[in-house]
User: What shape does this take?
Amino acid sequence: MQINSFDEYQKVYKQSVEQPEEFWAGIADTFKWRKKWDKVLSWNFSEPNIKWFEGGKLNITENCLDRHLEKNGDKPAIIWESNDPEKDSVTLTYKILHEQVCRFANVLKKNHVKKGDRVCIYMPMVPELAVAVLACARIGAVHSVVFGGFSAKSIADRINDAQCKLVITADGAFRGAKQIQLKEVIDDALIGCPSVEKVIVLTHTRTPVSMLKGRDLWFEDEIKLVDTYCPAEEMDAEDMLFILYTSGSTGKPKGVVHTVGGYMVYAGYTFSTAFNYQPDEIFFCTADIGWITGHSYIVYGPLSQGATTLMFEGVPTYPTPARLWEVVDKHKVNILYTAPTAIRSLMGFGNEPVDGADLSSLRVLGSVGEPINEEAWHWFDEHVGKKKCPIVDTWWQTETGGLMISPIAFVTPTKPSYATLPLPGVQPVLVDEQGNIIEGNDVSGNLCIKFPWPGMLRTTYGDHERCKLTYFSTYENLYFTGDGCLRDADGYYKITGRVDDVINVSGHRIGTAEVENAINMHAGVVESAVVGYPHDVKGQGIYAFVIFPNPHSDADLSRKDILQTVTRVIGAIAKPDKILFVSGLPKTRSGKIMRRILRKIAEGDTSNLGDISTLQDPGVVDEIIDKARQL
Ligand code: WT7
Assistant: This one.
């Protein structure tokens, strides 16, 4: 949908709230359905039970591929840029992508993957990753993509939770100057994964790998043995499309489930609306497909709209801090969608790299993943957008499937560090601690959504109760986001950050309990408490307070051992930035850790710790403050 003026936005928004079903039916009509739905929406937030476009039949890949072939078969669907600037880029037209997806879908079928089976994908950012994802969708298999930074144990937990039958991986991945041995990690993971029957391995880094007889197959060999066409499986709108694991307040990540019809409609609608995508433009989202941003805005959103999506294997600062700008100029990118952490890290290299680039192709900029601070917003606006590109600061979550609160480019007047206003179809509310809805402006509270939208999660895989408890039980009849938020005098929304035990490190969600569990697995550790603290580049850093009675005489060695443990248990992305050895933790008499106090200490603000008289041992606080100063 394209909205052309703020007036029009307000009209469309009003209609979307007054007649949501008509509104969403109108959007859904712009997609290709084998059979139209019987009912647009049925829902309750108490179970919860949410169904969009019930009775509708479709396949999302017919929307992302087949329907573009006649008019746009030769249009680039995916442009791939390597980690290595010397390497040629690769362009897959819609016709070529269609054929590759069909072929790989046939490979999956040949290896006995059927509709409803779960497939784990652990791959580098190469076109074959998008092909693998779409091939699953083609035959109705459920993909569970795991980010390349997770450890063998994390992968094993995810594979077992979803009972995956097949794994798609590669020998290795390049990320900047680093190489990740993906197949080796998978081999370690699969020691404890009896459900996996086959592993398909793509050659990419050409690192030696061990191929297990009867289980492991080469991608390149398999693809030669199959037909170039594969009919798309007919799916119900509410059939499962994918599972994506994300962290929460408890130790175990949960598998967020998205379904075919609603997710497709929502990803496509938000993509075309918020970014104001124009035919023939190049859209560049810098996320990894291992996260929801990559699912929705590298793969499904752009392709469903017949857009050209740029996929970048590397990192913004390798081999030089000008790399991201070189990629933008090389491919004449029109829309650049990135994260505050990337912007801040690039800012750290000064203005020379960015000011030396042309960047005149850019028309729209986007930000996602965490609150963007005003300094980074202005730098992005001035040095990247040259003050002529609107910045869409898009607030959303793995669970929401697509953008929720975001400016519409060229339509919504922006305000630095504000996600601004809800997209049409989205009904946010702020609530106080008791769950009362806070009306009016110039207020703050916890952010909830009071009406369903097609892209919302339907369940958490294998544990519906957990979905209900996490999102629908804190406040009655509301979806609770876990975010704090303010609504200013103009009715504009500004997300202030998580209000639960989740930290947002470089735009990646990490549960404090998960990191604590990992640290506690180290033999020398008695107990630990993990909190977030403000970090100049990452947004938030991970601060661990650890009871470790007998550290090595070189305490740094013990710290490194802990980092190694966390890397093994979760992955390098969860490594604490700071580790403080303490003899006790501030606990209430009932034994609950008072994280509020630790958060203050981690922030370096010990002026007002509040009432600590109810602690088991108030003396421990002084000790911690003292040690923290010396760290
Ligand atoms: C959490 C969701 C959505 C894709 C990336 C992260 C934070 C996300 C913004 C934004 C302020 C933001 C929230 C949210 N967040 N976008 N524009 N401004 N905060 O997905 O891992 O599911 O994390 O990221 O805290 O709840 P995720």
